[in-house]
């Protein structure tokens, strides 16, 4: 891992929380904002690994940076095109009797989308590129 | 950071204390804990998450799995949840099925 960049090739993304924590600290994000950014990134990386690559090893690159108004994280993978922003969120999957009778799962994308201020996706050069943004608080943080 | 799980079962009350992170890495051990508890006659499950610092959808699935295995008749109480953990539970609607007690309320 260097700067706000890391490469994951299978295995648990142990370095991801380290990267996100450093980015959140430098951006001056609140504890809650940092937690939610990590959660969103974690869910998208897990989604790429389990569904995009179907559990097989595959390249996942995470990069991040600071803008005057926001911190951003970009997750790239070479799995088939998948737009996490295109699927309707609908009702929370475990609301009502859903937790008792429904299938396990299906809430990773919901958590990712609800945890950040903006989520954008593009498919270019054979890669999914999903970018997460969290607004910075004024007058706080470096960069 | 891994997940530490301490379990006690006394007279139908199962108490599970979680410390660390409940995510895709630690989910298998949490599933196994739930599977063992569901094989014993319990009437109430208390999940003490005061020291749970992170909950992803993979960890949350384990809690939903507990609800499905134990059934509607077993009350599940999640105590001492941090604001972030409680929000994760609420976003998915799972708070409809359990008694969720925030840290601020205790």
UniProtKB/TrEMBL annotation, chain A:
<dbReference type="InterPro" id="IPR050267">
    <property type="entry name" value="Anti-sigma-factor_SerPK"/>
</dbReference>
<keyword id="KW-0808">Transferase</keyword>
<dbReference type="Pfam" id="PF13581">
    <property type="entry name" value="HATPase_c_2"/>
</dbReference>
<dbReference type="InterPro" id="IPR003594">
    <property type="entry name" value="HATPase_dom"/>
</dbReference>
<feature type="domain" description="Histidine kinase/HSP90-like ATPase">
    <location>
        <begin position="20"/>
        <end position="132"/>
    </location>
</feature>
<keyword id="KW-0418">Kinase</keyword>
<protein>
    <submittedName>
        <fullName>Anti-sigma regulatory factor (Ser/Thr protein kinase)</fullName>
    </submittedName>
</protein>
<dbReference type="GO" id="GO:0004674">
    <property type="term" value="F:protein serine/threonine kinase activity"/>
</dbReference>
<keyword id="KW-0723">Serine/threonine-protein kinase</keyword>
<dbReference type="InterPro" id="IPR036890">
    <property type="entry name" value="HATPase_C_sf"/>
</dbReference>
Automatic annotation (TrEMBL), chain B:
<dbReference type="InterPro" id="IPR036513">
    <property type="entry name" value="STAS_dom_sf"/>
</dbReference>
<dbReference type="GO" id="GO:0043856">
    <property type="term" value="F:anti-sigma factor antagonist activity"/>
</dbReference>
<dbReference type="InterPro" id="IPR002645">
    <property type="entry name" value="STAS_dom"/>
</dbReference>
<dbReference type="Pfam" id="PF01740">
    <property type="entry name" value="STAS"/>
</dbReference>
<comment type="similarity">
    <text>Belongs to the anti-sigma-factor antagonist family.</text>
</comment>
<feature type="domain" description="STAS">
    <location>
        <begin position="3"/>
        <end position="106"/>
    </location>
</feature>
<protein>
    <recommendedName>
        <fullName>Anti-sigma factor antagonist</fullName>
    </recommendedName>
</protein>
<dbReference type="InterPro" id="IPR003658">
    <property type="entry name" value="Anti-sigma_ant"/>
</dbReference>
């Amino acid at each position: 891992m260097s700067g706000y960049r890391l490469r994951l090739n299978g295995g648990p993304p142990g370095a991801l929380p380290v990267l996100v924590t450093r980015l959140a600290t430098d951006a001056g994000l609140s504890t809650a904002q940092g937690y939610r950014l990590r959660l969103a990134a974690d869910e998208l990386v897990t989604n790429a690994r389990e569904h995009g690559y179907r559990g097989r090893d595959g390249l996942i690159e995470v990069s991040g940076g600071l803008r005057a108004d926001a911190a951003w994280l970009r997750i790239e993978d070479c799995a088939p095109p998948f737009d996490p922003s295109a699927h309707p969120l609908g009702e929370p999957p475990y609301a009502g009797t859903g937790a008792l009778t429904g299938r396990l799962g299906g809430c990773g994308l919901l958590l990712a989308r609800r945890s950040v201020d903006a989520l954008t996706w593009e498919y270019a050069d054979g890669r999914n590129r999903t970018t997460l943004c969290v607004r910075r608080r004024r007058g706080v943080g470096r960069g | 950071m891994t997940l530490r799980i301490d379990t006690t079962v006394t007279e139908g009350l199962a108490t599970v204390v979680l410390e660390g992170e409940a995510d895709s890495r630690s989910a298998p051990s949490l599933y196994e804990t739930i599977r063992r508890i569901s094989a014993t006659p319990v009437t109430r499950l208390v999940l003490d998450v005061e020291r749970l610092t992170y909950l992803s959808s993979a960890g949350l699935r384990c809690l939903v799995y507990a609800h499905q295995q134990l059934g509607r008749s077993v009350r599940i109480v999640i105590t001492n949840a941090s604001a972030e953990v409680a929000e994760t539970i609420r976003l998915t609607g799972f708070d409809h099925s359990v008694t969720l007690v925030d840290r601020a309320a205790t």
